[in-house]
Design a protein that fits this description.
The chain is of the alpha/beta class. It has 2 domains: 75 residues, DNA polymerase, domain 1 (Orthogonal Bundle), CATH 1.10.150.530; 273 residues, TIM Barrel, CATH 3.20.20. It is 33% helix and 21% strand. α5 packs across α6 and α7 packs parallel to α9.
Length: 367
């Protein structure tokens, strides 16, 4: 169980640091253990879990089925919220909404709500920045600071749901800032919270974890028993080009990752999503089509085709600065050739690029 951390008192005086137990982010079993350790009944942990993760409450006085004596006993030693609002911006074109939240240690992260005709998706972050340096991604260009806690991962949903409307958010994708599987334990804890039957807002079937390809952790997630959907950022079917676009491929090769997602699909009974950003003259040829078809015939899967979104707001250098989206007609031709081979293909429409909230554009501009 995580016993907490040092949090600044209200006056921010370095001489008045108050050690608090951060309850937000604890799993059901951890909450039960917390109350047992205080000599209280473990079912109080279930009550707290339900209030925090289903009712999205951060006010202990709202928890009226918990005796006031217990509330008074612990109110000054616990923390029920890990993030605060900092800034929001909405696209005039697509109504995509970007949130910037600030952590207790003053790090800023971004989350995005993407409204579509049949669903509304919340894209959440798992790290402050990202260490992977994918050449097509603004988050990689901003660098890496640290991992988010399980509470900070969940509170992106809590704050967005309170603002946007809990009932309106139908899907969650771990596709924001950072690599979820490099923050594996906190990602897994947040998934356990979302998937618990006491957390009724989002079905685990509506959650997708996106990864650049951390093969051992893909296998570990498969064995966890939490059968979320998984999306592999593919972007090229050839080792050399993928390594150029995504340096992590030099550590965990495409071959190793394809073996891992094949295992994931078999173990969980889910279909893999391959994310594929269309880049002019780099991965948009007939050779690329044929390689994609081969992979998709071997692994239960579908392909998300994504137009490349500008990184100009990051003033990129080197290889990143040279990247261009494949022309629209080439993308359409590419997609049709895949469909002619009976491959399931979805074409993601760019949403939120006018507020730097589209796929690959997340990077906090407020430092």
């Amino acid at each position: 169980m995580e016993n907490g951390t040092n949090l600044p008192a209200e006056n921010n005086s370095e001489n008045q640091i108050q050690k608090k137990v951060i309850l937000k982010g604890l799993t059901l079993s951890e909450l039960k253990n917390y109350f047992l350790a205080k000599g209280l009944q473990k079912f109080r942990g279930e009550q707290f879990f339900y209030w925090m993760y289903n009712h999205l409450s951060t006010n202990i006085d709202e928890m009226t089925n918990i005796p006031k004596t217990i509330r008074n006993e612990i109110r000054n030693e616990i923390e029920l919220q890990t993030l605060e609002y900092f800034y929001t911006e909405e696209s005039e074109n697509t109504k995509t909404k970007k949130y910037i939240f600030v952590t207790k240690d003053n790090n800023k992260i971004e989350s995005v709500i993407i409204p579509e005709e049949t669903r509304t998706t919340l894209c959440i972050s798992t790290q402050v920045g990202c260490p992977l340096d994918c050449q097509f991604c603004a988050t990689g260009l901003m660098g890496y600071k640290n991992n988010l806690s399980s509470g900070e991962i969940f509170d992106q949903y809590m704050l967005a749901a309170k603002d946007y409307g809990k009932e309106k958010i139908t899907n969650i994708v771990y596709m924001g800032m950072g690599e979820p599987l490099l923050n594996y334990q906190n990602t897994l804890k947040s998934l356990k919270i979302f998937s618990n039957e006491l957390t009724k807002g989002i079905s685990v079937k509506k959650i997708t974890v996106s990864t650049a390809g951390i093969a051992p952790k893909i296998r570990e997630l498969a064995d966890s028993g939490i059968n979320v959907k998984i999306a592999l950022s593919l972007h090229s079917c050839f080792e050399e080009m993928r390594s150029k676009l995504m340096p992590i491929n030099q550590k965990y090769s495409l071959k190793e990752n394809l073996m891992a997602v094949r295992y994931y699909a078999k173990k969980t009974g889910t279909r893999i999503t391959f994310e594929y950003i269309m880049l002019k003259d780099l991965n948009d040829t007939d050779e690329d089509v044929n390689a994609l078809v081969k992979i998709c015939k071997e692994i239960p899967s579908k392909i998300n085709i994504i137009p490349f979104n500008s990184l100009s707001h990051m003033n990129p250098k080197g290889f990143s600065a040279k990247l261009e989206s494949a022309p629209r007609d080439r993308i359409e031709n590419f997609v049709q050739k895949l469909r002619d081979k009976n491959i399931t293909v979805m074409v993601r429409q760019t949403q939120g690029d006018d507020i730097a909230a589209a796929c690959g554009q997340l990077a906090v501009k407020f430092l």
